[in-house]
Each structure stands twice: as C-alpha cells, then as structure tokens.
Amino acid sequence: MRASRPSDRDEGSASVLVVGVVAAIVTITVGLLAVAAAVLASHRARLAADLAALAGATRLESGSPSDACAVAAGVAERNHGRLVTCRPIGPVLDLTVAVPAWPWPAEAVGRSRAGPITGSITASTTASTSAQTSRRAGPDAFAHQARLAADQSRSPASVHFCGRYHPEPVVVA
Predict the structure, then answer these.
(1) What DSSP letter does each residue of the chain carry, written as one string?
(2) Which pTM does this prediction carry?
C-alpha cells in the first residue's frame, strides 16, 4: 500500500474553485443585464407614452378624440410601443403605452397626460414641476424655471406636458 501525501489529495481543487467563481460571476452578470434591460424598457415605455400624449393632445385641439387616439397610437408604434389605453378628458389626453421588456415576461408600461395650459391644469402642473425643480441643483434649475415661465406666458392653446418633469418634449407627428 502506498502512503499518500497531503499534496496528492489536493490536486485539482483549485480548478473546481476557479470554475465556481467563474460561474458565480457569469450568473451575477446575466442577472444585472436582465435588470438593466428592464430599466431600459421602462424608460422607453415612459418616453413613448410622453411623445404619444403630446402628439395626441396636439391633434385633440384641432380634431376629434378618436383622431387624437389614432395619432397617439401611431406615435407609440413608431417608438416600438403599443397603445393600451387612451382617454380624452376634456382637452387633456391621458394614455398608457406598453413596450416589450425582454427577458421579462411582462411588458413595461408608461403613463402620460398632455393638454393645453388652462386653469387647474396649470396650477397642478406648476406645483409638481416646481417641486421637482427645487430638488435640482445648478444652472439647469434656473433654465427650467425660465422655460416654465415662457410656457405659461404663451396662449392658452399651447400644448403642455402634464406629467413628470420632461426637459424638452419633442412631438413626432
């Protein structure tokens, strides 16, 4: 019988350790990429909803509610989304857009409202946007307040974003 040395029993144990560490790193990386994909889909859904709401509200001013929802659906589709709900509430268009969120089984959903600057809409929008602006620091806060003042001085027929802070909305019509 041959006596084994302690080093003979430990041969190959480093390989097993390296394989385990590499597997853990790959698993963590895949998980982080999946979370990043879901966050990106969420941002895309909110952007598609914002653009669709602005385009639909612009059409709502000059056309019928069904035309506004059709325009909003077209803009949502061009942004790789699907219009889930579209409700004209007076001059304001309230809608929801869903965007695929691969590898997640559920879609990312974004909700937005847009309409003219009038009465209570202006007061609620200004209050929420001012609260968000006060949290911002630096010259951007002052530039945003200047844009708000310019928006409020325009005619009541101008379309305004009624949801969260959106620095420079672009309407794709």
Answers:
(1) -PPPPHHHHTTTHHHHHHHHHHHHHHHHHHHHHHHHHHHHHHHHHHHHHHHHHHHHHHHHHHS-HHHHHHHHHHHHHHTT-EEEEEEEETTEEEEEEEE--TTSSSPEEEEEEEEE--HHHHHHHHHHHHHHHHH--SHHHHHHHHHHHHHHHS-TTSEEE-SS--SS-----
(2) 0.60
Query: Do residues 113 and 53 lie in contact, with contact meaning Cβ atoms separated by under 8 Å?
Result: yes
Rounded CA gap, 93 and 67, in Å? 12
59 burial class (0-12, 13-18, 19+ CB within 10 angstroms)? Answer: buried
Tens digit of pLDDT at every position of the chain (173 positions)? 565 565 666 677 888 999 999 999 999 999 999 999 999 999 999 999 999 999 999 999 887 888 999 999 999 999 999 999 999 988 899 999 999 988 888 899 999 999 887 654 444 444 444 434 344 444 454 455 545 555 544 444 444 455 444 444 444 44
